[in-house]
Design brief:
The protein is of the alpha+beta class and 230 residues long. It contains 7 helices and 4 strands; from the N terminus they run H-H-H-H-H-H-H-E-E-E-E.
Length: 230
Amino acid sequence: MSEKRKILHAVLFPVFFLLLMWGNYTAFWLMEKPMSVIGIAPQKLESIAGIVLSPFAHGSLSHLAGNSISFMVLATALFYFYRLIAYRVFFINWLVSGILLWIGGRESVHIGASGIVYGLAFFIFFSGVFRNDKRLSALSLIVVFLYGSMIWGLMPQGGNISWEGHLFGALSGISLAWYFKKRPIDFVPTDDGSSVSVTWGQYQAYEYHYVDEDETDSDEPSIDEQKKSD
């Protein structure tokens, strides 16, 4: 895959998801309906759909705009650097953070995509740490530089801030970073013109998984494996 196509692939889904968020906000604004109807009311069966729908609900334009910028940056980074596992990480994080919030959140209605954003940030940071790769570690440092202040969002605070959503998103991201730490994340070309998927890091070595580049749906994409030191 060319660099241009790789960038396009990395941007396409985040933009689509962002358009859904803004479209939903606009629709509710035009209908003059409260966003709380699709939020998460913890431990209430009537709001269980909020596990999936709450990221599309935002209390204000500033709330939506703030989440949009962070989401676009982090989601694009996920789909660029972790191409082979990006969809699984994204959707599992979305569901797990929502389920945990539905189970353990305080009595209130929780809305917004902050849980997804925190999950992405913590996944990207800890994945760089767990994989022990210079390139991904550098990405982790960039995340810390840009979003290091997010750590304060994990603490209980007043107002209408769902700190539990932040916390459960972060826990989901860390868990996924650990679970996927040995999974291939991208394809690299070989001398004979074929493509291999490669797990970066792991004791300063590349772990090659020989597959065709189109075979991206399998959870176990490797047919044959070997390790090659740098």
